Amino acid sequence: MPGIDESLLETMRLPGARGALVADWISGLALGAVGEAPGGDAEATAAETAEFARLAVESGTLAPATPAVPATPGTGSPPPPPGSEPPVQDLILTTADAYHLLRFVSTPFDSTVFLYLWLDRTDGNLALARIRLAETADRLVLG
Amino acid sequence: MTTVARADGSAPELLDRLAADRATGALSTRAGIFYLSAGHVVHVESPHSPDLGELLTRSGAVPPAGWWEAVERAGTRHRVGRHLVDSGRLTAGALELCQLGALFDAAYCALAHGGTVLRFRPGVTHWLGAVRPVPVATVLHESWRRRELLHRIWPDPAVDTAPLTRTGGTGPVALPPRRARTLALVDGVRTAAQIASASAHRTFHTLVELRRLAADGLVAPAPPPPAHPATGAGGAAWDEPDTALLRRLLDALEAL
Fold it and tell me: Looking at the record's lineage, which domain of life comes first (chain A) (predicted)?
């Protein structure tokens, strides 16, 4: 069963992966990090991506408290039951040279964490990375 | 019984020194206990934050019977965490996430409530066992960062310790689910730590929601109760809410 480090290292095997971390979207704490970080500072990356994640989670319009969740095929894992946290599954931020992927981790206890992956835009496969990151997030907690 | 080392100085100072010495043992402060192994923090306990067992059982992640079985079977060997994973109750990842959450939460609470050191007991280890040891410098830096984060949201530390009351109007307010659930537990009596415990949430994460609610004018330290002789010396404890109210008034006037 994978722990935090094994999960991050698994993520780094994706083509184009430059760095990955697990962070808490309320405190901004990095719970684990591997590879490079944009700007060279994993702690700053965790804090800034956490703020981005928090705004998405707390957005009343984009992330309703009880989302109507039709099954969406091909998105990695099934949608969570209505009312479960977090209401957002993932975030994708695209820049000229990179994809920044955030995947929320759903835990039965209070954790408020997400996986973050920094993906090179030339070598990375966004669709594949998104599916793998979702699987990794599930395995981290469910085994 | 291990020897009790005489400790002087503040908790951060002493933790730094113990880290440099790669010490193993338990450092007790007025508001918590730091367990070190080879100079790394392996566990922290504070009466102001829910512990790992509370976070796991009160959320339903591990049934209470399962938790106590792990404590009974593996407690004396200091391998309760390992036992939870080996017996299939939790994945290694889930245990690490929950344990780190509890560790940084307790460390923040222990340091925020005054870091006066009482004693260091060399060689003492916690029954949970090492799950994911953290460098002392990381724990201290994170606690400082958390204090700054709370200050940026709403600079009134009274929210963290006083009984809290709702101050918003009667109309419904659209709040993120987590904040709405926190607000629902504000009843004029509970403190932040009691609200955290009631919701099986970490205390710091509850403080963040409460300071945001205070910044929105929805929550404030409760006003003093009607004057009647209470048990013990309760008078001093009620000074803080008045200060907080005055500070908010001042802020509001300055904003005009």
Answer: Bacteria
Token digits of residue B140: 């201290």
pLDDT score at B168? 78
Which residues of chain B are within 8 Å of residue A113 when distances are taken between CB atoms? 97
**Which pLDDT score is estimated for A62?**
72
Structure ipTM over 0.85, yes or no:
yes
pLDDT tens-digit series, residues A49-91: 999 999 999 987 775 555 444 444 444 444 444 445 677 899 9
Q: Which of B163, B76, B70, B167 is nearest to B127 (CA)?
A: B76
> What 8-state DSSP symbol labels residue A101?
E
Q: Is B249 exposed, middle or buried (0-12, 13-18, 19+ CB in 10 A)?
A: exposed
Across chain B, where does the E strand assignment appear? 25-29, 32-37, 40-45, 117-122, 134-135, 164-166, 219-221
A chain contacts of residue B177, beta-carbon cutoff 8 Å = 65, 83, 85, 87
- B 71-130 residues with CB below 8 A of A? 85, 91-98, 100-101, 104
Q: Which of A109, A113, A136 to mutate to test the interface with B (most CBs of B within 10 A)?
A: A109
CB-based contact B192:B48 (threshold 8 Å): no
| Smallest Cα distance from B61 to chain A, Å | 5
Report the alpha-carbon distance of residue A100 to residue A121 in Å, rounded.
9
Which among B171, B145, B149, B156 has a CA at the least distance from the CA of B214? B156
End-to-end CA distance of chain B: 63
**Least CA distance to B177: which residue of chain A?**
A65
Report residue B33's pLDDT band, with 50, 70 and 90 as the boundaries. very high
Task: Note the CATH number of domain A4-142.
Answer: 3.30.450.30
Query: Cβ of B200 under 8 Å from any chain A Cβ?
Result: yes
pLDDT value, residue B254 = 59
Task: Look at residues A18, A14, A45, A22 and name the one whose alpha carbon lies nearest to residue A137.
Answer: A22
Over the stretch B184-234, which tens digit does the pLDDT of each residue have? 999 999 999 999 999 999 999 999 999 999 999 999 999 877 766 555 444
